[in-house]
Amino acid sequence: MKFVFDLDGTIIFSGKPLSVSMTQVLDQLTAKGHELIFASARPIRDLLPVLPAHMHSYPLVGGNGAFVANHGRILSTIHFDDGTKESMIRLIDKYKAGYLIDSAWDYAYSGDEQHPIRRNLDPEQRAQNKPLEQLNELVKAVILHSEEPEQLLDELRQLPVVIHRHGSENILDISPTGVSKWAGLQGLGLNPREFIAFGNDANDISMFEQAQYSVCVGDHADLLKVASEQILAEEERVIQRIEEFIWSV
């Protein structure tokens, strides 16, 4: 069986790397012949530092589906078209928004240095923080704050983009049209109903809808509508549930 795991808030917590205990139970899954896939909002650049080295070659979906990687290399990226890119930059300037914007590898960051996203951004300094105008293809954008946020959201919704609003962090996570975790998983060759998914947020809905079975970690209302079951957002409980799958699947 294939198991697809979201990272933040699902199997890693507070932005910290995968714990020893979580690593051990995931290794037990693979030892039983199951395949692991990680699907995260993080770009591949920021996904790798929270995984142990032996998992870097596993199939990976990053940027909510904008990046697909396997065997240690990025297979594909999806970026905003030029018109959408220009419109987004205009809105960022109009509403004086703070942002994290990713290209295929480098990024532009204009937010507070103490923001939680900044603390988790490129911790191994694999990339460069460049001025926005120096980035070529834009793959993913996160709006950290802005003037008149509701008006900004309304205007962004007029563009051909996918927006996930994370209420707990009060950020907007923006991807090109057609990008989703399920689309990324399809890029890895997955078919509907052939995997079990673990997730915790709205960006996991697309893969939950296609999973054979799905586990919602925590209490996200929209994700619960399509989840097979719900468990507490506690590492010990997640580990326990994975252990149960080891012996039942």
From TrEMBL:
<dbReference type="Pfam" id="PF08282">
    <property type="entry name" value="Hydrolase_3"/>
</dbReference>
<dbReference type="InterPro" id="IPR036412">
    <property type="entry name" value="HAD-like_sf"/>
</dbReference>
<dbReference type="GO" id="GO:0016787">
    <property type="term" value="F:hydrolase activity"/>
</dbReference>
<dbReference type="InterPro" id="IPR023214">
    <property type="entry name" value="HAD_sf"/>
</dbReference>
<protein>
    <submittedName>
        <fullName>Hydrolase</fullName>
    </submittedName>
</protein>
<dbReference type="InterPro" id="IPR006379">
    <property type="entry name" value="HAD-SF_hydro_IIB"/>
</dbReference>
<keyword id="KW-0378">Hydrolase</keyword>
